């Protein structure tokens, strides 16, 4: 069977000399969840727009469920469901009315459309909310309806764009469970775009880390983290320290490597982080640049990102959203 998604060498330029995609390639198998992870501006939305036939690539090829996005956009649209960040639901209509209307838009007859709406209302625990206007829904309920709307026509590939942005922790957890079940029970292939590191870690069987229009690393979350041998050591100062004495002090310590200084924060790797810390702190004290805080953690996806993209995730997030910045560096994906 054809891959759910096969994209090869996608290039997209926008006016103003913006190269949104610079040869991006991804594949997604049936029933798999691929997490497209990257900061604002990395090229995730452009990739999704090409795969959902909204934008034409300047170069490269892409097929969804075996249908070429340029030659057979009509067929592609039949087999995909898209849940974008902006809700497509009519706030003045009820959940049931929204679902029935969506089914009718796909050409389903009245009785069958109502049956499908009922199935989805039950599937997503929306029974109680079915007869209420969408404008009265909580964020989590609305998101569940959005996903249900994306599934009305039984797509084979679902595009989920930042599915839990703005949800409280409980609603987030329940959305994660729904998404995992969709891929598991219904063999739906899901392309999840997110810039929550923990979401990607939790949900995606495979991750493609996107930076500056291309995939810089790909693999299971564990494999990606496993490539980073040893522990991550993170240091922080009250204000940005002078770089030369910090580097000189740490350069003398054996076993400390991949030192990246980024403003008042520093990350390094050590085979045994806990054992390295006393020497690290002593060396910095002696050099007159004492650190204010130190943490040792198993590598997180943030560390993976740092290694492949050469900068911290939050720093790379050009818009500097609170969401990404709030991601704890040392513990984000640590296990
Ligand atoms: N219509 C457009 N015209 C000009 N530039 C664009 C257009 N759409 C996107 N870009 C630029 O292309 C680059 C990639 O944008 P894209 O939206 O694909 O990134 P993203 O990873 O989805 O980011 P976000 O998480 O903010 O959605 C960015 O530099 C963006 O400013």
TrEMBL record:
Q: Does the keyword Protease apply?
A: no
GO terms for biological process, alphabetical: daunorubicin transport; doxorubicin transport; response to antibiotic
Instruction: Supply the InterPro entries for this chain.
Output: AAA+_ATPase, ABC_transporter-like_ATP-bd, ABC_transporter_ATP-binding, DrrA, DrrA1/2-like_C, P-loop_NTPase
- Which Gene Ontology molecular function entries are recorded, alphabetically? ATP binding; ATP hydrolysis activity
The ABC transporter domain is annotated at 5-237
Gene Ontology, cellular component aspect: plasma membrane
Q: Which domain of life is it from?
A: Bacteria
Q: Which PROSITE patterns match?
A: ABC_TRANSPORTER_2 (PS50893)
Q: Where in the cell is it found?
A: Cell membrane
Keywords in UniProt for this one?
Antibiotic resistance, ATP-binding, Cell membrane, Membrane, Nucleotide-binding, Translocase, Transport
Topology versus the membrane? Peripheral membrane protein
Keyword Cell membrane among record annotations: yes
Could you tell me which NCBIfam families the record lists for this protein? drrA
Could you say which protein family the record assigns here? Belongs to the ABC transporter superfamily. Drug exporter-1 (DrugE1) (TC 3.A.1.105) family.
**What is the recorded name of this protein?**
ATP-binding cassette domain-containing protein
Instruction: Give the species this sequence originates from.
Output: Actinomadura litoris
Species classification: Bacteria, Bacillati, Actinomycetota, Actinomycetes, Streptosporangiales
